[in-house]
Write a structure and sequence with these properties.
With 453 residues, the protein is an alpha/beta fold. Helix content is 34%, strand content 17%. It has 17 helices and 18 strands. Helix 2 links the parallel strand 3 and strand 4. The longest helix is centred in the middle third of the chain and has 18 residues.
C-alpha cells in the first residue's frame, strides 16, 4: 500500500509538445502536424520573409529556415511555377522530395483563417507538364498559373487583402511602427513633400542636421532652387490632397484654353484619377493633336495664356529630348523624353480657411484668398506616340514596371512611354490605342481602374 501511495505521488510524464524556436528566440507550439513550410526568399525579400515566417510560427505552423527533407510545401511570391522549379533544381532537391509549390495567397489565407486551408487550383503555381506530377502530386495537373506580373492581374482600388495589413494579434506591426516613428523617416517624409525635393536632397539636408520644415524655412544659408522656394511658399496647399472635383476643374480650364487655338487637340487626365481615385497630390494632363507637328506649340501658348490671366504661380518647361532612332529604354523605371511643364496653378475655390495646422506641427496663417495652389503636370506627345504615353502616365508605377518586365522577359520586346520594339523582328510596333499595345504583347486588356497594383 505504501508503495502504491508513494508511486501516486510521482508526477506522470506528459508527452512533450513539439515547439519551434524562431529567429526571435520565442517558442511557439506547432499545432499542425504533417505540414512543413518553406518560404522562398527569391523576389520576396529577407525582411518580408522573416516577418511572414514569424507570423506563421505564431499561428502554429512549422516553418523551416532552410529547404530540408521534411519540407512538404514551398511557398513563393511573385514567382512562376517554372521559376520555382528552376530554383529547386539548382538546390538539387527536386529528386529528393516532392513538394506542393504554392503561391503566397495560400499562405496569407491560412494566416487569416488561423489554420491550413484546402489547396485549390488557384493556389498552385503552374509548371511544365513533365514536372507537374513530381512537384504537385496530390492535385490535378491542370494547374492555374498565378502570374508574377501585375499586368496580368486585375487590381481594383478596393484592397481585398486589407485584413493582412493588421495581421498581428495586437493589430499592428512593431517593425513598421519603429520605422514610421524614426527621426529619419519623419524628416525624409517632410522634406520630400516639398515640391522639387527628392531623396538625394532629403538625404543631404538630413546629414546637415536638419529635421523639420521649420529648420528648412529658417536656415538662411540654405540654397534652394526656385522650384523648392515655391514649394515651401505654397506648402500647405500643395501638401494637401487634390480632390477629383478639383482635378476635373483643372482639366476643364486647360481644355478651354487649348481648344481656342487647337480645336482638335486631345486633353486627357491621367495618373490616379484615371484609375478611379477620388484624391491625389497633383493633376497630370496628357496633350496631343492628330495633325502632325501642331502639338509642338501647345505648351508655350498655354503657359502664356495662364500667365496673362494671372493663374500661374510657378512653371518650369522641359523641351523634348526624344530621339526616334533609339530603341525603348531597357530600364523598367526609365523616365520619358516628352516636352512637359511642371507648374503650380492658382485654382479658384469656394471655401477659404483662415488658419491651418498640419500634423508635422508647422502652423502658419494663410492670407484670406479665394484660390488654392495646385500642382499640375502638362505633358505633350506626338499623336503617333500618344497610346504609349497614355499607358505609361496612367500607372500605377508597379503595373507599368511589370508590364515592361513582361514585354522584355516573356515577349522579347522593349516597351517604354514612347514605343514598343520587337527585338526578334527588329521592328517598331505601331499602336493607336492602349488595346493595341496589350494585343501586341498577347495580354488581355486591363481597364485603367483595374491597374492599381
Amino acid at each position: 500500500m505504501d508503495l502504491v501511495r508513494s508511486a501516486s505521488l510521482v508526477p506522470i510524464k506528459k508527452k512533450p509538445r513539439l515547439v519551434h524556436v524562431s529567429s526571435t528566440l520565442h517558442r511557439h507550439e506547432i499545432k499542425f502536424e504533417g505540414i512543413v513550410l518553406y518560404l522562398l526568399e527569391r523576389k520576396m525579400g529577407t525582411s518580408r520573409r522573416n516577418f511572414l515566417m514569424e507570423l506563421g510560427r505564431k499561428r502554429g505552423f512549422r516553418i523551416e529556415n532552410e529547404l530540408r527533407d521534411s519540407v512538404t510545401h514551398v511557398v513563393a511570391e511573385n514567382n512562376s511555377g517554372d521559376e520555382v522549379l528552376e530554383w529547386l533544381q539548382t538546390a538539387r532537391r527536386i529528386q529528393a522530395n516532392t513538394y506542393q509549390i504554392l503561391d503566397i495567397s495560400w499562405f496569407t489565407e491560412c494566416m487569416g483563417a488561423g489554420h491550413p486551408i484546402e489547396i485549390q487550383r488557384r493556389h498552385q503555381l503552374q509548371v511544365q507538364e513533365d514536372f507537374s506530377a513530381a512537384c504537385n502530386p496530390p492535385v490535378s495537373s491542370s494547374c492555374v498559373h498565378l502570374s508574377p506580373y501585375a499586368c496580368q492581374r486585375r487590381t481594383p482600388l478596393q484592397d481585398v487583402n486589407r485584413i493582412f495589413t493588421e495581421i498581428l494579434e495586437e493589430g499592428q506591426c512593431c517593425r513598421v511602427l519603429e520605422v514610421l516613428n524614426s527621426e529619419r523617416y519623419k524628416a525624409f517624409k517632410a522634406f520630400t513633400s516639398i515640391f522639387g525635393v527628392g531623396l538625394k536632397t532629403a538625404e543631404k539636408w538630413f546629414r546637415m542636421g536638419l529635421r523639420t520644415l521649420e529648420d528648412i524655412k529658417y536656415k538662411k544659408d540654405l540654397k534652394l532652387t526656385t522650384m523648392q522656394k515655391h514649394g515651401l511658399l505654397y506648402y500647405d496647399d500643395i501638401a494637401d490632397y487634390v480632390s477629383k472635383m478639383e482635378a476635373e476643374a483643372v482639366e476643364h480650364l486647360m481644355k478651354n484654353i487649348i481648344y481656342k487655338f487647337v480645336p482638335d487637340a486631345i486633353v486627357t487626365i491621367t495618373g490616379g484619377f484615371r484609375r478611379g481615385k477620388e484624391l491625389g497630390h497633383d493633376v497630370d494632363l496628357l496633350i496631343t493633336c492628330p495633325r502632325k507637328g501642331v502639338e509642338r506649340e501647345i505648351l508655350h501658348n498655354t503657359i502664356n495664356v495662364l500667365k496673362n490671366q494671372g493663374q500661374l504661380l510657378f512653371y518650369d518647361i522641359y523641351e523634348s529630348t526624344f530621339d526616334d532612332t533609339k530603341r525603348p529604354s531597357r530600364r523598367v523605371d526609365a523616365l520619358d523624353h516628352y516636352q512637359k511643364s511642371f507648374l503650380i496653378l492658382k485654382l479658384a475655390k469656394k471655401e477659404v480657411k483662415a488658419e491651418k495646422r498640419r500634423d508635422d506641427g508647422w502652423k502658419r496663417l494663410e492670407d484670406l484668398r479665394d484660390w488654392k495652389a495646385v500642382r499640375v503636370d502638362l505633358v505633350i506627345t506626338p499623336h503617333e506616340q500618344y497610346a504609349f504615353a497614355l499607358l505609361g502616365w496612367t500607372g500605377s508605377p508597379q503595373f507599368e514596371r511589370d508590364l515592361r518586365r513582361y514585354a522584355t522577359q516573356e515577349k522579347k520586346m522593349m516597351l517604354d512611354n514612347h514605343a514598343l520594339f520587337d527585338k526578334t523582328k527588329n521592328v517598331f510596333l505601331k499602336a493607336r490605342s492602349e488595346e493595341d499595345i496589350f494585343a501586341h504583347l498577347g495580354l488581355d486588356y486591363v481597364l485603367p481602374e483595374e491597374r492599381n497594383a
